[in-house]
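I had to read the description of the data format several times before I understood it. In essence, backbone conformation is discretised, so a fold becomes a row of integers matching the chain in length. I therefore recommend that a typical entry be quoted early in the introduction. For illustration, here is how one protein appears when written out as sequence plus structure tokens.

***
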Amino acid sequence: MSKRPELSAGEALVSLLEAHGVDTIFGIPGVHNIEMYRALPRSGIRHVLTRHEQGAGFMADGYARASGKPGVCFTITGPGLTNILTPMGQAWSDSSSILVISSALDIRDSAQGRGRLHEMISQVQAAGSVTATAMRAYTPKDIQDGIARAFSGFASARPRPAYLEIPLDLLSEPAGEGWKARRTATRAHHGEGEITEAIAMLSAARNPAIILGGGALDGGRAALRIAEAIGAPIITTTAGKGAVPADHPLCWGYRLGSPALQEMLKHCDCVLAAGTELSETDFWNSDCLLENLIRIDIDPASLTRPHAARLAILADAAPALAAIAAGFSGRKPTSHIAPPTDESPLRKMLAKVLGVIRDSLPMETVIASDMTQIAYAANEIFPCSLPRTWLHPVGFGTLGFALPAAIGAKFAVGATPVAALAGDYGLQYTINELGTAVEHRLPLPVLLWNNEALGQIRDNMADSGIQPNAVTLLNPDFIALAKAYGARGERPDSLAALARAIAAALKADGPTIIEMTPRMAGL
């Protein structure tokens, strides 16, 4: 048996990822990327074979959100990349660190219109529309530089996807030297003068408030110290849920979509907003512009748009909040009254279901949700008290996120419970990944809200004076489908039965689809 004289660039790539602490890669091997798989069996990296590249991207996103570490994917030329662009867009809009490494056509014969398999005009330009960094390698040194650039960005800048494509002929070239993890940069640090000014502004405020986004998940304790000292409520974005304990009297959770809260914020004389874009998908109102802002963000662009700041601090939110908190002591009572909640019949019914789910899942459970009515309600009324436990596809707003993101999160957090919350339509975007969960025997409750419709779109049509159309669907038998995959299936007929089904699913040796219906909730 002949001995390979030297590592290929594809083999060295795996060792370099391992040196950067990568322990899991999500992906699908194909004819155009098998050289990336040559060294995987002898590495310490676990590869998770997904059923679709879209599933791989969402799994990497869920892994990143739950762990705070980059999620990594391997994909192939052409359709492999186009299939994963949707998860890359979701990670882009929601500030999630994923690294997509794709093969590309040969350097010597790339995009020449010769009818090559998987040929595209420009893969890197397609990826560049939804990434912070899109790179094409031409030499082994380019691969080393590309990986270093990606991980440096993850460590020092706003979390966003990175993309590196490696041509087929380069993957099989001799690797050469220099395949070592390089020291990465650190995030921008606040200035002392800015902190002093922020403390003075907050101390002088008579009607302050604090808003925490996903970039402030690790700054919750410091934010609470500030809130208690100045008597300010803490409102989170959807991505910021869990930054502070939900049962703290100053924690209002996510309420930014409430017109009453938006009006209250407009009259605050100082609002401290940390780690958040304050975007349309936070307020669901593009006309809501706030004043009197202290903004803390790692992204300089976010400090200037769309809301102007009286004080803009370019810094990582957690240490900046800690520095501000150090300038306060004691507690001040608050006179703020929480804005009214939505008491519609639908919200009351969903609140009953979500209450059972919350009581049935340990508080540390990581929950990945989808774009569905029950998750929209949960964004506001489902209490989370720990960071990185509520994963929702806010900005890009794609369907199909919940199941694969929950799978990725489960690989990230190990024994910690994980659940998915999806609607009957959205689940079918990525239900094939149920096979991945079965293969790895993941005890994953898949909480399926089945109202046999695109419920939110139906209601939006009605509210807009449009006769609802194209919003009802013929669903499969989800329980039979679960069993066909080798998973468990439950269809509880009451809220008490739902609680029992969740308890059983947490102890199962594989995933369980738990089909919930309005009838189960008493309607």
